[in-house]
Design brief:
Blueprint (H helix, E strand, L loop, with lengths): L1 H21 L21 E5 L2 E5 L3 E6 L4 E7 L2 E6 H5 L5 E9 L11 E6 L3 E6 L11 H14 L7 H4 L4 E3 L2
Antiparallel strand pairs: 1-2, 2-3, 3-9, 4-5, 5-6, 6-8, 7-8
């Protein structure tokens, strides 16, 4: 019975698609545009009062302004921040990875070292920290500068009351 009803309905819909245009009515299908999230949308950097800022349409992060760093957008949900001298020297230089997760997605809990940097109505922004050495250990300048950047990055934690007051990660909106 269900199958006969489905076939009859399908035949009726097909007939309508032929009849309606013959009356001069044109029904054109419209594409519904769904805006896809992009963590790096609107990305830019700026310097102000001894700090350097990375801004996107979703958040702002600040780091010490006297240290050379850069970023890379990996995909629509992932942004990596590097300490440039260590990266250029072949030591990785990864300071922190910011990854946006949907509210229902808790897969980040399997990551060895992370914190929730910030929250908005649609996403959880998770700060993921490296677990291996990311700078040249024989270079005291790299050790000191990378250490300062990592110290700032590890304050990205909206769930720790002490760190929340000085969180370098600020959600926009």
């Amino acid at each position: 019975m269900k199958r006969k009803f489905k076939n009859t309905l399908l035949l009726f819909l097909c007939t309508l698609s032929v009849i309606i245009p013959s009356f001069g009515v044109q029904a054109e299908p419209k594409a519904i545009e769904i805006e896809e999230f992009d963590i790096s949308s609107g990305i830019k950097t700026r310097a102000s009062e001894g700090s350097a800022y990375l801004e996107t349409d979703h958040f702002t992060i600040y780091f010490p302004g006297d240290i050379s760093w850069d970023y890379e957008s990996v995909d629509n949900n992932t942004l990596i921040i590097y300490y440039t001298p260590a990266k250029d020297a072949g030591f990785g230089g990864r300071v922190v990875t910011i990854k946006a997760y949907d509210w229902a997605d808790n897969s980040y809990e399997d990551i060895p070292e992370y914190s929730i940097a910030g929250l908005d109505s649609e996403k959880k922004y998770v700060a993921i920290f490296p677990t291996d050495l990311q700078y040249d250990p024989s270079d005291s300048t790299q050790e000191a500068e990378y250490g300062r950047m990592l110290k700032v990055a590890k304050r990205m934690d909206c769930e720790d009351e002490k760190l929340t007051m000085d969180n370098p990660f600020d959600v926009i909106g």
